[in-house]
Amino acid sequence: MTTQEATTVERVYPPKLMFMVANPIMKWMLSTRLGKRVNDLALLQFKGRKTGTDYKLVSAIHQVDGRAALLTNSGWRHNFAGGHPVTATIGGEKFEMVGTLQAQPEAVARVYAEKIKELGQTGASRRLGVKIDGPDEPTLEQLTDLTRDVGLSVIYLDPVAD
Fold first, then answer.
1. Rounded alpha-carbon distances, angstroms, from residue 80 to 29, 46, 77, 84
2. How much is the pTM?
């Protein structure tokens, strides 16, 4: 008789050295014509809601229910609670957008579940920062617990209405 291995899920982060080396290069690249070749990353520029701090950062961009979205648990996400303006450079083009934070654990868990199904376990680790150990996809309950534990969230990016 064999016992089935339980599936676990946890948040993982790229090595700090990668951020220190790759992020400046990607910021530069995404702001030039070379950025036209990179459609799965966005260069985001916005001001902090409370501090007025200028943010310029690189984030993976995803399609969720036909909308551009960022999946993160980084502290800067809180700037987008209730909606906040952001300039997003995607595929070499600048877009004036409004980012809106979705932090409700069950809703965020559903988005992560869909993306894991779409990307597979290896892709989820690389593109979502979620490590899955075991033979199965994590359950919605596991993803909801992870969302609560580490603050996973979705930021939807919508075009500014003219």
1. 25, 10, 6, 5
2. 0.89
